[in-house]
Protein backbone atom coordinates (compact mmCIF):
# COMPACT_ATOMS: atom_id res chain seq x y z
CA UNK A 1 0.00 0.00 0.00
CA UNK A 2 2.77 2.41 0.81
CA UNK A 3 4.43 4.03 -2.10
CA UNK A 4 7.58 6.05 -2.53
CA UNK A 5 8.72 7.72 -5.70
CA UNK A 6 10.92 10.57 -6.82
CA UNK A 7 10.14 13.35 -9.23
CA UNK A 8 12.13 14.59 -12.16
CA UNK A 9 14.56 17.32 -11.03
CA UNK A 10 12.69 20.01 -12.98
CA UNK A 11 9.67 19.55 -10.71
CA UNK A 12 11.65 19.74 -7.52
CA UNK A 13 12.05 23.06 -5.81
CA UNK A 14 15.61 24.08 -5.01
CA UNK A 15 14.86 24.82 -1.38
CA UNK A 16 16.13 21.50 -0.01
CA UNK A 17 18.41 21.70 3.02
CA UNK A 18 19.56 19.02 5.41
CA UNK A 19 19.30 19.90 9.10
CA UNK A 20 20.92 17.52 11.51
CA UNK A 21 19.91 16.94 15.14
CA UNK A 22 21.07 19.82 17.30
CA UNK A 23 19.45 22.22 14.84
CA UNK A 24 16.62 24.40 16.12
CA UNK A 25 13.09 23.85 14.83
CA UNK A 26 10.68 26.77 15.16
CA UNK A 27 6.97 26.03 15.30
CA UNK A 28 4.51 28.66 14.26
CA UNK A 29 1.56 27.72 16.45
CA UNK A 30 1.85 25.99 19.79
CA UNK A 31 -1.21 23.76 19.97
CA UNK A 32 -1.30 19.99 20.30
CA UNK A 33 0.07 19.42 16.81
CA UNK A 34 3.07 21.59 17.65
CA UNK A 35 3.45 19.78 20.97
CA UNK A 36 3.51 16.31 19.42
CA UNK A 37 5.81 17.49 16.63
CA UNK A 38 8.12 18.95 19.27
CA UNK A 39 8.10 15.70 21.27
CA UNK A 40 9.07 13.71 18.17
CA UNK A 41 11.75 16.25 17.22
CA UNK A 42 13.15 16.26 20.74
CA UNK A 43 13.41 12.48 20.73
CA UNK A 44 15.60 12.88 17.64
CA UNK A 45 17.77 15.54 19.29
CA UNK A 46 16.40 18.73 17.78
CA UNK A 47 15.81 21.90 19.82
CA UNK A 48 12.43 23.62 19.73
CA UNK A 49 11.09 27.16 19.77
CA UNK A 50 7.42 27.97 19.41
CA UNK A 51 5.52 31.14 18.63
CA UNK A 52 2.05 31.30 20.18
CA UNK A 53 0.11 34.02 22.00
CA UNK A 54 -1.14 31.75 24.77
CA UNK A 55 1.16 31.42 27.78
CA UNK A 56 2.03 27.82 28.66
CA UNK A 57 0.43 26.58 25.44
CA UNK A 58 0.62 22.80 24.77
CA UNK A 59 3.82 23.10 22.72
CA UNK A 60 5.54 25.54 25.08
CA UNK A 61 5.32 22.92 27.83
CA UNK A 62 7.73 20.70 25.89
CA UNK A 63 9.72 23.32 23.94
CA UNK A 64 13.00 25.01 24.83
CA UNK A 65 11.53 28.46 24.38
CA UNK A 66 8.25 30.21 23.62
CA UNK A 67 7.94 33.53 21.83
CA UNK A 68 4.69 34.69 23.30
CA UNK A 69 3.29 36.82 20.51
CA UNK A 70 0.24 37.11 18.30
CA UNK A 71 0.03 35.38 14.92
CA UNK A 72 0.15 38.82 13.34
CA UNK A 73 3.33 40.01 15.12
CA UNK A 74 5.83 40.60 12.36
CA UNK A 75 8.78 41.35 14.66
CA UNK A 76 8.24 38.09 16.53
CA UNK A 77 8.05 36.19 13.24
CA UNK A 78 11.38 37.70 12.20
CA UNK A 79 12.90 36.69 15.51
CA UNK A 80 11.62 33.13 15.08
CA UNK A 81 13.00 32.98 11.53
CA UNK A 82 16.42 34.28 12.56
CA UNK A 83 16.73 32.19 15.70
CA UNK A 84 15.70 28.89 14.13
CA UNK A 85 17.36 26.77 11.46
CA UNK A 86 14.00 25.68 10.12
CA UNK A 87 10.45 26.89 10.78
CA UNK A 88 7.14 25.10 10.24
CA UNK A 89 3.52 26.10 10.69
CA UNK A 90 1.32 23.66 12.58
CA UNK A 91 -2.04 25.21 11.69
CA UNK A 92 -3.27 27.02 8.62
CA UNK A 93 -5.02 30.00 10.11
CA UNK A 94 -1.88 31.99 10.79
CA UNK A 95 -1.62 35.31 9.00
CA UNK A 96 -0.16 34.64 5.56
CA UNK A 97 2.04 37.73 5.93
CA UNK A 98 3.74 36.10 8.89
CA UNK A 99 4.64 33.04 6.85
CA UNK A 100 5.96 35.32 4.11
CA UNK A 101 8.10 37.17 6.65
CA UNK A 102 9.55 33.90 7.86
CA UNK A 103 10.22 32.81 4.31
CA UNK A 104 12.16 36.04 3.70
CA UNK A 105 14.19 35.94 6.88
CA UNK A 106 14.64 32.23 7.43
CA UNK A 107 13.88 28.75 6.14
CA UNK A 108 10.23 27.69 5.79
CA UNK A 109 10.31 24.49 3.72
CA UNK A 110 6.49 24.14 3.61
CA UNK A 111 6.44 27.55 1.91
CA UNK A 112 3.87 30.32 2.14
CA UNK A 113 2.22 29.32 -1.13
CA UNK A 114 0.95 26.02 0.30
CA UNK A 115 -0.48 28.01 3.19
CA UNK A 116 -2.15 30.52 0.85
CA UNK A 117 -3.88 27.68 -0.97
CA UNK A 118 -4.92 25.63 2.05
CA UNK A 119 -6.20 28.53 4.14
CA UNK A 120 -8.84 29.39 1.58
CA UNK A 121 -11.35 26.71 0.55
CA UNK A 122 -12.00 28.07 -2.95
CA UNK A 123 -8.34 28.13 -3.87
CA UNK A 124 -7.93 24.70 -2.37
CA UNK A 125 -10.81 23.21 -4.36
CA UNK A 126 -9.57 24.77 -7.60
CA UNK A 127 -6.04 23.47 -7.00
CA UNK A 128 -7.24 19.95 -6.22
CA UNK A 129 -9.60 19.85 -9.21
CA UNK A 130 -6.71 21.01 -11.40
CA UNK A 131 -4.68 18.07 -10.07
CA UNK A 132 -7.35 15.76 -11.52
CA UNK A 133 -8.98 14.66 -8.28
CA UNK A 134 -12.81 14.69 -8.17
CA UNK A 135 -14.19 17.61 -6.16
CA UNK A 136 -17.87 17.99 -5.22
CA UNK A 137 -19.69 20.72 -7.15
CA UNK A 138 -19.22 24.10 -5.46
CA UNK A 139 -19.94 27.79 -5.97
CA UNK A 140 -18.35 30.93 -4.54
CA UNK A 141 -20.88 32.90 -2.48
CA UNK A 142 -20.59 36.62 -1.77
CA UNK A 143 -24.22 37.66 -1.35
CA UNK A 144 -27.61 36.18 -0.46
CA UNK A 145 -28.44 36.29 -4.14
CA UNK A 146 -25.33 34.18 -4.90
CA UNK A 147 -26.48 31.73 -2.25
CA UNK A 148 -29.96 31.43 -3.78
CA UNK A 149 -28.40 30.82 -7.21
CA UNK A 150 -25.98 28.25 -5.76
CA UNK A 151 -28.82 26.35 -4.06
CA UNK A 152 -30.77 26.33 -7.32
CA UNK A 153 -27.77 24.94 -9.20
CA UNK A 154 -26.39 22.53 -6.63
CA UNK A 155 -29.72 21.36 -5.21
CA UNK A 156 -30.53 20.63 -1.57
CA UNK A 157 -29.17 19.69 0.85
CA UNK A 158 -26.10 21.79 0.51
CA UNK A 159 -23.28 22.81 2.85
CA UNK A 160 -22.31 26.47 3.18
CA UNK A 161 -18.82 27.09 4.58
CA UNK A 162 -16.70 30.12 5.32
CA UNK A 163 -13.77 30.04 2.91
CA UNK A 164 -11.36 30.91 5.71
CA UNK A 165 -10.87 30.16 9.36
CA UNK A 166 -13.15 27.10 9.79
CA UNK A 167 -12.23 24.09 11.88
CA UNK A 168 -14.06 21.27 13.68
CA UNK A 169 -17.20 22.07 11.69
CA UNK A 170 -17.21 25.72 12.83
CA UNK A 171 -18.21 28.23 10.16
CA UNK A 172 -20.49 25.72 8.41
CA UNK A 173 -24.22 25.50 7.80
CA UNK A 174 -26.02 22.45 6.55
CA UNK A 175 -28.86 23.82 4.44
CA UNK A 176 -31.79 21.46 3.94
CA UNK A 177 -34.23 24.10 2.76
CA UNK A 178 -34.38 27.69 1.56
CA UNK A 179 -35.68 28.53 5.05
CA UNK A 180 -32.37 27.26 6.46
CA UNK A 181 -30.56 29.55 4.02
CA UNK A 182 -32.57 32.54 5.25
CA UNK A 183 -31.35 31.82 8.78
CA UNK A 184 -27.66 32.18 7.88
CA UNK A 185 -26.54 35.33 9.75
CA UNK A 186 -25.87 38.49 7.70
CA UNK A 187 -22.40 38.90 9.15
CA UNK A 188 -20.98 35.83 7.40
CA UNK A 189 -21.66 37.35 3.98
CA UNK A 190 -19.31 40.19 4.91
CA UNK A 191 -16.58 37.78 5.84
CA UNK A 192 -16.76 38.75 9.50
CA UNK A 193 -16.26 35.15 10.55
CA UNK A 194 -13.11 34.75 8.50
CA UNK A 195 -9.42 35.47 8.83
CA UNK A 196 -8.27 38.48 6.78
CA UNK A 197 -6.66 37.55 3.47
CA UNK A 198 -3.15 38.77 2.76
CA UNK A 199 -1.01 38.87 -0.38
CA UNK A 200 -1.41 36.56 -3.39
CA UNK A 201 -4.90 37.92 -3.85
CA UNK A 202 -6.80 36.49 -6.79
CA UNK A 203 -10.06 38.40 -6.74
CA UNK A 204 -11.88 35.77 -8.80
CA UNK A 205 -11.23 33.32 -5.97
CA UNK A 206 -11.88 35.72 -3.10
CA UNK A 207 -15.28 35.22 -1.49
CA UNK A 208 -16.29 34.89 2.14
CA UNK A 209 -18.29 31.71 1.51
CA UNK A 210 -18.45 28.60 -0.58
CA UNK A 211 -21.55 26.47 -1.10
CA UNK A 212 -20.95 22.83 -1.89
CA UNK A 213 -23.22 19.96 -2.79
CA UNK A 214 -23.93 17.63 0.11
CA UNK A 215 -22.13 14.32 -0.46
CA UNK A 216 -24.18 11.29 0.59
CA UNK A 217 -21.05 9.50 1.72
CA UNK A 218 -20.89 6.01 3.21
CA UNK A 219 -17.46 6.69 4.71
CA UNK A 220 -14.94 9.43 5.27
CA UNK A 221 -11.27 8.65 4.80
CA UNK A 222 -8.08 10.64 5.05
CA UNK A 223 -4.51 10.10 3.97
CA UNK A 224 -1.50 11.85 5.46
CA UNK A 225 1.17 12.30 2.79
CA UNK A 226 4.77 13.23 3.58
CA UNK A 227 6.90 14.93 0.95
CA UNK A 228 10.43 16.26 1.11
CA UNK A 229 11.79 19.31 -0.67
CA UNK A 230 13.67 16.81 -2.88
CA UNK A 231 10.32 15.45 -4.03
CA UNK A 232 10.21 12.09 -2.24
CA UNK A 233 6.68 11.05 -1.32
CA UNK A 234 5.50 8.54 1.28
CA UNK A 235 1.91 8.24 2.50
CA UNK A 236 0.40 6.60 5.56
CA UNK A 237 -2.38 4.00 5.33
CA UNK A 238 -5.81 5.65 4.92
CA UNK A 239 -7.84 6.17 8.08
CA UNK A 240 -11.60 5.66 8.22
CA UNK A 241 -12.95 8.67 10.09
CA UNK A 242 -16.14 9.07 12.09
CA UNK A 243 -17.32 12.65 12.70
CA UNK A 244 -20.13 13.87 14.92
CA UNK A 245 -21.28 17.49 14.83
CA UNK A 246 -18.41 18.31 12.48
CA UNK A 247 -15.77 17.09 14.96
CA UNK A 248 -13.62 14.02 14.35
CA UNK A 249 -14.46 11.40 16.98
CA UNK A 250 -12.80 8.18 15.82
CA UNK A 251 -10.24 7.04 13.26
CA UNK A 252 -10.25 3.35 12.39
CA UNK A 253 -7.25 1.69 10.73
CA UNK A 254 -7.18 -0.37 8.59
CA UNK A 255 -10.20 1.36 7.11
CA UNK A 256 -13.06 -1.10 6.56
CA UNK A 257 -13.27 -0.52 2.82
CA UNK A 258 -12.15 -2.49 -0.25
CA UNK A 259 -8.43 -2.32 -1.04
CA UNK A 260 -9.22 -0.81 -4.41
CA UNK A 261 -11.02 2.14 -2.79
CA UNK A 262 -8.17 2.69 -0.34
CA UNK A 263 -5.63 2.59 -3.15
CA UNK A 264 -7.67 5.18 -5.03
CA UNK A 265 -7.74 7.44 -1.97
CA UNK A 266 -4.02 7.06 -1.37
CA UNK A 267 -3.17 7.76 -5.02
CA UNK A 268 -5.44 10.82 -5.09
CA UNK A 269 -3.79 12.18 -1.94
CA UNK A 270 -0.28 11.68 -3.30
CA UNK A 271 -1.26 13.29 -6.59
CA UNK A 272 -2.50 16.38 -4.75
CA UNK A 273 0.70 16.61 -2.67
CA UNK A 274 2.84 16.50 -5.81
CA UNK A 275 0.64 18.94 -7.75
CA UNK A 276 0.78 21.45 -4.89
CA UNK A 277 4.54 20.97 -4.48
CA UNK A 278 3.76 20.36 -0.80
CA UNK A 279 6.68 19.91 1.58
CA UNK A 280 6.24 18.51 5.08
CA UNK A 281 2.89 16.80 5.55
CA UNK A 282 -0.32 17.17 3.62
CA UNK A 283 -3.46 15.58 5.05
CA UNK A 284 -6.16 14.93 2.48
CA UNK A 285 -9.74 14.36 3.69
CA UNK A 286 -12.05 12.54 1.31
CA UNK A 287 -15.60 11.19 1.11
CA UNK A 288 -16.35 7.71 -0.22
CA UNK A 289 -19.73 7.24 -1.90
CA UNK A 290 -21.63 3.94 -2.16
CA UNK A 291 -20.30 3.34 -5.69
CA UNK A 292 -16.75 3.28 -4.31
CA UNK A 293 -15.82 6.66 -5.73
CA UNK A 294 -13.60 9.01 -3.77
CA UNK A 295 -14.35 12.75 -3.52
CA UNK A 296 -12.06 15.42 -2.17
CA UNK A 297 -13.22 17.25 0.98
CA UNK A 298 -10.37 19.34 2.32
CA UNK A 299 -6.64 19.68 2.94
CA UNK A 300 -4.42 20.40 5.90
CA UNK A 301 -0.74 21.27 5.28
CA UNK A 302 0.45 19.76 8.57
CA UNK A 303 -0.01 16.77 10.90
CA UNK A 304 -3.66 15.82 11.17
CA UNK A 305 -5.92 14.53 13.92
CA UNK A 306 -6.77 11.51 11.77
CA UNK A 307 -3.05 10.67 11.65
CA UNK A 308 -2.63 10.41 15.43
CA UNK A 309 -3.08 6.63 15.18
CA UNK A 310 0.42 6.47 13.65
CA UNK A 311 1.99 7.34 17.02
CA UNK A 312 1.37 3.88 18.43
CA UNK A 313 0.34 1.75 15.45
CA UNK A 314 2.96 2.56 12.81
CA UNK A 315 6.71 2.06 12.64
CA UNK A 316 7.00 5.84 12.23
CA UNK A 317 4.57 8.46 13.50
CA UNK A 318 3.26 11.31 11.37
CA UNK A 319 5.16 13.66 13.70
CA UNK A 320 8.54 11.99 13.19
CA UNK A 321 7.81 11.89 9.47
CA UNK A 322 6.99 15.61 9.53
CA UNK A 323 10.33 16.36 11.21
CA UNK A 324 12.13 14.15 8.69
CA UNK A 325 10.48 15.91 5.75
CA UNK A 326 11.21 19.37 7.17
CA UNK A 327 14.82 18.56 7.98
CA UNK A 328 15.62 16.86 4.69
CA UNK A 329 16.09 13.39 6.21
CA UNK A 330 15.02 10.34 4.24
CA UNK A 331 11.35 9.56 4.78
CA UNK A 332 10.68 6.48 6.87
CA UNK A 333 8.44 3.54 6.12
CA UNK A 334 4.93 4.13 7.48
CA UNK A 335 4.29 0.42 8.06
CA UNK A 336 1.13 -0.38 10.03
CA UNK A 337 2.15 -2.64 12.93
CA UNK A 338 -1.27 -3.18 14.48
CA UNK A 339 -4.96 -2.52 13.92
CA UNK A 340 -5.91 0.60 15.84
CA UNK A 341 -8.81 2.82 16.78
CA UNK A 342 -8.06 6.42 17.71
CA UNK A 343 -10.67 8.11 19.88
CA UNK A 344 -10.59 11.83 20.58
CA UNK A 345 -10.89 13.00 24.17
CA UNK A 346 -13.00 16.16 24.14
CA UNK A 347 -13.59 18.40 27.14
CA UNK A 348 -16.77 16.56 28.06
CA UNK A 349 -14.91 13.21 28.06
CA UNK A 350 -12.14 14.23 30.41
CA UNK A 351 -13.86 13.50 33.75
CA UNK A 352 -14.69 9.93 32.63
CA UNK A 353 -11.15 9.45 31.30
CA UNK A 354 -9.67 10.51 34.64
CA UNK A 355 -12.08 8.30 36.54
CA UNK A 356 -11.40 5.13 34.56
CA UNK A 357 -7.77 5.70 33.52
CA UNK A 358 -6.16 3.88 36.47
CA UNK A 359 -7.87 0.66 35.32
CA UNK A 360 -7.23 1.07 31.56
CA UNK A 361 -5.20 -1.70 29.95
CA UNK A 362 -1.78 -0.87 28.50
CA UNK A 363 -3.05 -1.29 24.93
CA UNK A 364 -5.03 1.92 25.37
CA UNK A 365 -2.33 4.50 24.75
CA UNK A 366 -3.18 7.88 26.26
CA UNK A 367 -2.05 11.22 24.82
CA UNK A 368 -3.08 14.42 26.63
CA UNK A 369 -2.23 17.90 25.40
CA UNK A 370 -1.72 19.79 28.66
CA UNK A 371 -4.62 22.19 28.11
CA UNK A 372 -5.81 23.81 31.32
CA UNK A 373 -9.45 24.38 30.44
CA UNK A 374 -11.69 21.49 29.39
CA UNK A 375 -14.48 23.14 27.42
CA UNK A 376 -17.10 20.95 25.70
CA UNK A 377 -15.98 20.09 22.16
CA UNK A 378 -12.38 21.13 22.85
CA UNK A 379 -9.76 18.56 21.90
CA UNK A 380 -7.96 17.69 25.15
CA UNK A 381 -6.23 14.50 24.02
CA UNK A 382 -6.77 11.16 22.36
CA UNK A 383 -6.30 7.49 22.95
CA UNK A 384 -4.95 4.90 20.51
CA UNK A 385 -6.39 1.49 21.21
CA UNK A 386 -4.38 -1.41 19.79
CA UNK A 387 -5.35 -5.06 19.34
CA UNK A 388 -4.36 -7.95 17.07
CA UNK A 389 -7.75 -7.65 15.31
CA UNK A 390 -9.72 -4.51 14.58
CA UNK A 391 -12.92 -5.91 16.14
CA UNK A 392 -10.98 -6.48 19.35
CA UNK A 393 -9.70 -2.91 19.31
CA UNK A 394 -13.28 -1.64 18.92
CA UNK A 395 -14.36 -3.92 21.76
CA UNK A 396 -11.51 -2.71 23.97
CA UNK A 397 -12.49 0.89 23.24
CA UNK A 398 -15.99 0.11 24.57
CA UNK A 399 -14.54 -1.21 27.83
CA UNK A 400 -12.80 2.15 28.48
CA UNK A 401 -16.25 3.52 29.46
CA UNK A 402 -15.81 6.99 28.05
CA UNK A 403 -17.61 7.14 24.70
CA UNK A 404 -20.84 5.36 25.55
CA UNK A 405 -22.12 2.23 23.80
CA UNK A 406 -20.28 3.07 20.54
CA UNK A 407 -22.11 1.98 17.46
CA UNK A 408 -19.53 2.07 14.66
CA UNK A 409 -20.92 -0.08 11.82
CA UNK A 410 -18.61 -0.83 8.90
CA UNK A 411 -19.31 1.26 5.77
CA UNK A 412 -21.44 -0.51 3.15
CA UNK A 413 -20.79 -0.01 -0.53
CA UNK A 414 -23.35 -0.99 -3.13
CA UNK A 415 -21.86 -4.05 -4.80
N1 LIG B 1 -20.21 18.57 1.32
C1 LIG B 1 -20.40 17.80 2.38
N2 LIG B 1 -21.22 16.72 2.32
C2 LIG B 1 -21.43 15.95 3.40
N3 LIG B 1 -20.86 16.13 4.59
C3 LIG B 1 -20.00 17.17 4.73
C4 LIG B 1 -19.73 18.05 3.63
N4 LIG B 1 -18.85 18.97 4.05
C5 LIG B 1 -18.58 18.69 5.34
N5 LIG B 1 -19.27 17.61 5.76
C6 LIG B 1 -19.19 16.99 7.12
O1 LIG B 1 -18.68 17.92 8.05
C7 LIG B 1 -17.37 17.54 8.50
C8 LIG B 1 -16.49 18.75 8.68
O2 LIG B 1 -16.35 19.39 7.43
P1 LIG B 1 -14.93 19.98 6.96
O3 LIG B 1 -13.95 18.90 6.92
O4 LIG B 1 -15.13 20.78 5.73
O5 LIG B 1 -14.77 21.00 8.15
P2 LIG B 1 -13.68 21.60 9.06
O6 LIG B 1 -14.40 22.44 10.03
O7 LIG B 1 -12.64 22.25 8.25
O8 LIG B 1 -13.15 20.35 9.82
P3 LIG B 1 -11.70 19.94 10.30
O9 LIG B 1 -10.76 21.00 9.93
O10 LIG B 1 -11.88 19.76 11.77
O11 LIG B 1 -11.48 18.65 9.58
C9 LIG B 1 -16.88 16.58 7.42
O12 LIG B 1 -15.87 15.72 7.90
C10 LIG B 1 -18.19 15.86 7.09
O13 LIG B 1 -18.52 14.92 8.08
MG1 LIG C 1 -12.37 18.36 7.88
How does this model look, in words?
It contains 13 helices and 18 strands. The strands form three sheets. Strands 1, 10, 11, 12, 13, 14, 15, 16, 17 and 18 form a ten-stranded antiparallel β-sheet that branches. Strands 4-3-2-5 form a four-stranded parallel β-sheet, with helices on both faces. It has a four-stranded antiparallel β-sheet with strand order 6-9-7-8. It is of the alpha+beta class. The protein folds into three domains: 18-108, Rossmann fold (3-Layer(aba) Sandwich), CATH 3.40.50; 137-213, Dna Ligase, domain 1, CATH 3.30.1490.20; 219-399, ATP-grasp fold, B domain (D-amino Acid Aminotransferase, Chain A, domain 1, 2-Layer Sandwich), CATH 3.30.470. The model is unreliable at 1-14 (pLDDT under 50). 28% of the residues lie in helices and 24% in strands. The chain is globular. α2 (74-83) runs parallel beside α3. Magnesium ion binds at residues 285, 298. Adenosine-5'-triphosphate is lined by residues 136, 159, 161, 166-170, 212, 214-215, 220, 243, 246, 285, 297-298.
Amino acid sequence: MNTAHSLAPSQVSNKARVLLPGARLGLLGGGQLGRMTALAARAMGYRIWTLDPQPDCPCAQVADHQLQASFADDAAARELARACDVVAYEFENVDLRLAQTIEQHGYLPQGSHLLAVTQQRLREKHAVAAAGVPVTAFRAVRTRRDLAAALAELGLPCVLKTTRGGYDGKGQWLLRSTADAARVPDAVFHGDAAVEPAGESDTALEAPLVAEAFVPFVAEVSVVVARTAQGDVVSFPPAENVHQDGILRFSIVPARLPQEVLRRAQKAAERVAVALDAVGLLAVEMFVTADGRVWFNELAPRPHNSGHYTQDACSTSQFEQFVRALCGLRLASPRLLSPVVMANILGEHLPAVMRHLPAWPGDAKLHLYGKAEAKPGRKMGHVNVLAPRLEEALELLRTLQVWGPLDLPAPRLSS
